[in-house]
Amino acid sequence: xxxxxxxxxxxxxxxxxxxxxxxxxxxxxxxxxxxxxxxxxxxxxxxxxxxxxxxxxxxxxxxxxxxxxxxxxxxxxxxxxxxxxxxxxxxxxxxxxxxxxxxxxxxxxxxxxxxxxxxxxxxxxxxxxxxxxxxxxxxxxxxxxxxxxxxxxxxxxxxxxxxxxxxxxxxxxxxxxxxxxxxxxxxxxxxxxxxxxxxxxxxxxxxxxxxxxxxxxxxxxxxxxxxxxxxxxxxxxxxxxxxxxxxxxxxxxxxxxxxxxxxxxxxxxxxxxxxxxxxxxxxxxxxxxxxxxxxx
Amino acid sequence: xxxxxxxxxxxxxxxxxxxxxxxxxxxxxxxxxxxxxxxxxxxxxxxxxxxxxxxxxxxxxxxxxxxxxxxxxxxxxxxxxxxxxxxxxxxxxxxxxxxxxxxxxxxxxxxxxxxxxxxxxxxxxxxxxxxxxxxxxxxxxxxxxxxxxxxxxxxxxxxxxxxxxxxxxxxxxxxxxxxxxxxxxxxxxxxxxxxxxxxxxxxxxxxxxxxxxxxxxxxxxxxxxxxxxxxxxxxxxxxxxxxxxxxxxxxxxxxxxxxxxxxxxxxxx
Lengths: 296, 269
Ligand SMILES: Cc1cc2nc3c(=O)[nH]c(=O)nc-3n(C[C@H](O)[C@H](O)[C@H](O)COP(=O)(O)OP(=O)(O)OC[C@H]3O[C@@H](n4cnc5c(N)ncnc54)[C@H](O)[C@@H]3O)c2cc1C
Ligand SMILES: Cc1cc2nc3c(=O)[nH]c(=O)nc-3n(C[C@H](O)[C@H](O)[C@H](O)COP(=O)(O)O)c2cc1C
Ligand code: FES
Fold this sequence. Notes:
The complex is a heterodimer. Chain A is α/β, with parallel strands linked by helices. Helix content of chain A is 31%, strand content 18%. In chain A, strand 10 (192-193) and strand 11 (198-199) form a beta hairpin. In chain A, helix 2 (93-105) packs parallel to helix 3, helix 5 (214-225) runs parallel beside helix 6 (241-250) and helix 6 packs across helix 8. The two termini of chain A are 29 Å apart. The relative contact order of chain A is 0.15. A 7-stranded antiparallel sheet of chain B has the order 4-3-7-1-2-6-5. In chain B, strands 11-10-9-8-12-13-16 form a 7-stranded mixed sheet. Chain B folds into 2 domains: 3-94, Beta Barrel (Elongation Factor Tu (Ef-tu), domain 3), CATH 2.40.30.10; 106-216 and 251-263, Rossmann fold, CATH 3.40.50. The longest helix of chain B has 13 residues, at 195-207. Chains A and B meet through strand 3, strand 4 and helix 7 of A and strand 14 and strand 15 of B. Residues 8-11, 33-34, 57, 59, 61, 87, 115, 118, 158, 185-186, 209-210, 213, 235-238, 258-259 of chain A line the site of flavin mononucleotide.
């Protein structure tokens, strides 16, 4: 990556939605919406609710499926000279492996990010009582190994923050061969309309994102960074360079801008520029000197 | 072309209880905007409220555009406190506007409540390009909420007023008024307003063999097709998808495409 800034899966479409606002090749990478083997229609609306300094979503992984990703979306991103992190989602370790294999074979990704942490889909095949794959260390191990065996591309595992201790799933991913982890996916949440007594999301529960979750995400990155040897992509409520640098100081190697792209599609580019300006102002030669450099 | 611009607020007036008209300056956005398209308005510079608010271009001028909005909740309340001279960040133009089809013999605008915001720019475009100006059914809860009637009249439109409480015009619903105007196969109906008004209007138009376009609302995060938050269920697949995005596939849709039953239960916004 030419700089440590990407965009978070599901908040930047397939890159083409926002590329009219700025040149996406200026980002370290474009991370795509989660892609599955078959196209998915996603959940019924309403799928969004705005909440204080953030939003709840229950999109349900609507996506075009791998075939259309390979034939249309990835080639388009290539014409824009973007580095591609393909985020994938499957119903089984085999499906994840298949997705990774096809992406690598077609040259449609520079790295894989496996979403083991979407709160908005309900699958039978998750491990013992866990709702999300990444709530179970055993499941993380099985899924990560399967994908690892299928591809030589850099492999990032995206973890859920809805756990007791983030260090355990992060270590499980590392031990199973991940090249890095992405922290955090959304926090589970819900909202009810007091007038109608109805849930505000058709799915009832959803994932909370935006500046509201930033302190939680920074803490999780800090926790994970103290035990991991592999890099962390920090995500959660980044709204500009200052908050991106918070994540680096907590121990992230790179950051991804999520919901803030909804507020301003060019936020990620502003973060790239803002970090450069910060390094100059603090006379720091290499951005890597910031990683884990919080002074407690 | 799409822009994110800090636009100067040129005028900002209360036009009815809780209803405001805001004129903003931007030659770029004005040049690119089409009737029926919308923009995303940043109501405050801080991050709470977090999301921009979708608003349609009510009027499009040479040097800018006018928004017409109703104070619903926190976001529009904060917007209403902005004063001329300040700037407001606008992202747009977004979405598909109304197609202008001068070959059709009759154009009828059906407006309910603040849905009227979608129509002054359209009425002007139709008046300028079509043989005869559109007819307008202007419906609202009560007399003081019947907005833009004089503006429509100044464009040569025949305006039919209706209120729920009978305080002005007919005491009738908009769809019933449309029925009485006798639309036919050569008629194009444009509807914007509460969901129930649009679905009943669409049904009247369909029975009469008229075409009907509706401008839909949905909760939006990005306005640009990226978040997949604003979908509605369509009866036919659009580019292989059953869920269509109001922001990029709409907000103007052929009423016949919309699964109204699914939509009514999902959105009583
Ligand atoms: C394409 C489009 C064009 C629109 N044009 C206009 C217009 O010209 N004039 C006008 O008065 N209103 C318009 N609306 C509706 C307007 O966006 C909402 O009234 C406004 O977002 C309410 O924000 P709030 O913070 O005051 O209300 P709150 O209820 O506090 O808002 C909470 C959240 O729900 C969303 N929301 C609430 N009501 C609606 C709604 N009806 N549609 C979409 N999102 C909603 C808000 O954006 C916000 O994120 C339009 C909506 C769409 C989708
Ligand atoms: C509307 C929406 C859709 C999302 N879709 C996905 C997805 O498809 N796959 C995924 O791994 N994460 C998805 N996420 C989670 C984000 O990638 C990110 O982890 C999370 O939103 C926290 O970052 P933020 O606070 O900066 O938005 C989605 C988030 C939002 C708001
Ligand atoms: S508002 Fe984001 S896809 Fe329509």
